[in-house]
């Protein structure tokens, strides 16, 4: 049997929407786990000439990388930021990620321009265009240069 039209049953709910995948404490623990994983798993760069030498570079942390690591859609992560219960932990996670990116870019480990774009620090240029409107004045004057009426 369906609910009658125009009902207010939805107002009786204690919570709206789905349950979140992680509590703030669980999200904190997952962030610590992610930071450790980044440190323990540098990016391996293989010699393009086919030699045996390999180099390792520190892996940059990112918000989307964190989301993939914990199996959470980045859209949800950014939505959780609006929730008062999650705001502080998400700010802390974002700060740690930004600090790692900035410090590694400062010492030359990461490309500065890419990190600047990721953090929204890229320089923005405003381009102004001047539009000049031309009038056809040739029809306003006769052959002798006198104004036509």
Protein described:
- With 149 residues, this protein is mainly α.
- It has a domain at 20-122: Topoisomerase I, Chain A, domain 4.
- The chain is built from 5 helices and 2 strands, in the order αββαααα.
- The chain has helices spanning 24-40, 63-70, 74-80, 84-106, 112-118, and strands at residues 43-46, 54-57.
- A two-stranded antiparallel sheet has the order 1-2.
- Strand 1 (43-46) and strand 2 form a beta hairpin.
- Helix 1 (24-40) packs parallel to helix 4 (84-106).
- 9% of the residues are buried.
- The model has no long low-confidence stretch (mean pLDDT 81).
**What is the architecture of the domain at 20-122 at the second tier of CATH?**
Orthogonal Bundle
SS summary, helix count: 5
Strand content: 5-15%
Shape: flat
Distance between the termini: 82 Å
Largest sheet strand order = 1-2
Order of helices and strands: HEEHHHH
The major β-sheet equals: 2 strands, antiparallel
Derived from helix and strand composition plus strand pairing, the structural class reads mainly alpha
The rounded Rg comes to 29 Å
CATH class designation of the domain at 20-122? Mainly Alpha
CATH topology of the domain at 20-122: Topoisomerase I, Chain A, domain 4
The overall pLDDT average reads 81
Q: Helical residue percent? A: 40-55%
Unreliable runs, pLDDT <50, ≥5 residues? Answer: none
- The counted number of beta strands is 2
């Amino acid at each position: 049997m369906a609910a009658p039209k125009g009902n207010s049953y939805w107002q009786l709910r204690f919570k709206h929407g789905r349950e979140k995948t992680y509590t703030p404490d669980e999200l904190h623990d997952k962030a610590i786990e992610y930071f450790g994983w980044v440190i323990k798993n540098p990016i391996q760069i293989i010699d393009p000439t086919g030699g045996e030498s390999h180099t390792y570079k520190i892996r940059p942390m990112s918000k989307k990388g964190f989301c993939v690591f914990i199996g959470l859609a980045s859209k949800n992560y950014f939505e959780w930021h609006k929730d008062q219960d999650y705001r502080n932990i998400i700010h802390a996670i974002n700060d740690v990620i930004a600090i790692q990116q900035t410090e590694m870019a400062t010492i030359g480990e990461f490309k500065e321009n890419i990190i600047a774009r990721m953090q929204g620090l890229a320089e923005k240029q405003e381009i102004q265009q001047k539009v000049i409107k031309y009038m056809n004045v040739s029809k306003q004057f006769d052959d002798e240069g006198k104004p036509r009426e």
